[in-house]
Amino acid sequence: MRTRVLIPSGVLGLGFSRDALAHGVAAKPDIICIDGGSTDSGPYYLGTGTSKYARATCKAEWRQLMVARAALGVPLVIGSCGTCGSDTMVDWMMDITRELALELGQRVKVARLYSDQPIKRVRAAELRALGDVNPTLRGNIVALAGAEQMQAALETGADIVLAGRMTDTAVISTLPLMRGAHKGAAWHGAKIGECGALCSTNPTSGVVIIDFDETGFTVEPMEESARCTPHTVSAHMLYENADPFILHEPGGHLDVTQARYAAQGRRVRVEGSRWVPSADYTVKLEGAAKVGCQTTVLALLRDPRYVARAHEWASKLQDFLNTEITAHFPESFTLEFRLIGLDATLGALETGTATPNEVGVLGIITADTQETASEIAKFINPHLLHFPLTKNEELPTFAFPYSPAQTDRGPLYEFTLNHTMPLTHPMDAFRLETEVLA
Q1: Residue 247 and residue 187: Cα distance in Å, rounded?
Q2: Residue 321 — very low, low, confident or very high, per pLDDT cuts 50/70/90?
Q3: Widest CA span of the chain, in angstroms?
Q4: Could you tell me what percentage of the chain is helix, strand and coil, using 3-state DSSP and rounding each to the nearest 5?
């Protein structure tokens, strides 16, 4: 049985073409699937249980999808609600859905799949490390649901499923798997479609349709100016994936070593993918916790001599300030300088050699409290503005781009878990609730 999945965008809040969505709706899909987030933007969102994307934007896009769902009479599902997929973000999406149901006059059954993990449960589990990381059991912890948990949600007969943290692929693969699609194709097609039209020649158009069947899948962009090619489709296995041929999911892994990609006009047909079940069922855990507070301060170097020797200057300044700060502040702290315009992004991996006209010096101060971080930033302010390259020269004067030069960033969060947790039953770590909105 063919299962047609409409994917409007790589994530709710990113945007998509209205015309492309209309073309997708006209193709009469069996389900509308979209992702709500990931860990791409760092640990802050899980640590605080908040969304990276603006509520107004998410509501506007969700409105269009709820209208499309009502016209089609098919399920609408979203995974990893509100970027991080915490219980708070599932409830956040529920509030948006409730508002829209009232505004649109829709009567809908909504299933909420929660994935927050109590520390007591995680502590009692036999965690398996995915790297050289010791688990830190504090802060917010979520488990990444797979197809089995989404299947349980769909089996409630829900019109809309709001899921907590999930693998991006499980959101898409579930219904095809339920309807007998080739397992390797279901997971492979879900991986290709997870970011919408990123697998096409017009990534910003957002919308794609994927047809799944008993032997493979076919992917097609809904924007008329876009097309999928064997290159754009196969290349997406490299996206956010350490291995271009293997993708691990709850309950097994996808192997695309033998996959074959064939162009069919604007579409691409894929066969030969393989699903390999695992001996037991595990889910990945993500955790984020507060580790301090930060303040930043920014200065600009334009003197050609200082620009040319910016690394040397910053190194001397850091050594000097570390000593001075330690003498004046008993609290623990870290001070880091990033040279914007030289290697602020890649650091030692940078290969560029051209000397810029100016360099931004971003000082990052981390301490246990915001008060301490802010006070240290004030302490280093005059040194950052006037520190000389050598002892026997006139004091230079650099530039601060704004006043005050420092900015308090507030709490700092870090990831605390890179582990899997075995489950006896896939729903053991998840909670499912339903509600009818009228």
Answers
A1: 9
A2: very high
A3: 81
A4: 35, 30, 35
| Phi and psi angles of residue 32, each rounded to the nearest 5 degrees, phi first | -115, 125
Burial of 238 (0-12, 13-18, 19+ CB in 10 A): exposed
pLDDT, residue 227, reads 96
Question: Mutual orientation of helices 55-72 and 87-104 as an angle, nearest 10°?
Answer: 60
194: Cβ contacts below 8 Å, ≥ 6 apart:
7, 10, 35, 168, 169, 171, 172
Residues contacting 389, CB < 8 A, separation 6+: 305, 306, 309, 312, 313, 316, 396
Q: Does position 165 have pLDDT exceeding 90, yes or no?
A: yes
Q: What is the Cα–Cα distance from 433 to 438, expressed in whole angstroms? A: 17
- Alpha-carbon distance 322 to 383, whole Å? 12
The pLDDT of residue 136 = 87
User: What is the chain's Cα-based Rg?
Assistant: 25
CA gap 322, 340 in Å, rounded: 21
Residue 132 has pLDDT above 80, yes or no: no
Cα atoms in the Cβ-side hemisphere of radius 13 Å centred on 119: 10
- Residue 85 Ramachandran class (φ > 0 left, ψ -120 to 50 alpha, else beta): left
* pLDDT tier at 348, thresholds 50, 70, 90: confident
Q: Among 141, 109, 125, 133, which residue's Cα sits nearest to residue 432?
A: 109
Q: What's the pLDDT at 69?
A: 98
Q: What is the pLDDT of residues 367-401, one digit of tens each?
A: 999 999 999 999 999 999 999 999 888 889 899 99
Whether the CA torsion 253, 150, 81, 268 is positive or negative: it is positive
Q: Which helix (H) or strand (E) holds 397?
A: none
Q: Is the pTM of this model over 0.90?
A: yes
Average pLDDT across the chain, whole number: 95
Separation CA 420–CA 151 (nearest Å): 21
Q: CB of 299 within 8 A of CB of 321?
A: no
From CA 332, how far away is CA 380, in angstroms rounded? 16
pLDDT at 52: 96
Instruction: Tell whether the model's pLDDT for residue 352 goes beyond 90.
Output: no
Round to whole Å and give the CA distance between 302 and 323: 27
Is 6 in contact with 25 (CB distance < 8 Å)?
yes
H or E element in which residue 33 lies: strand 31-35
Burial class (CB in 10 A: 0-12, 13-18, 19+), 236: buried
Measure the CA–CA gap between 299 and 402, rounded to whole angstroms. Answer: 9
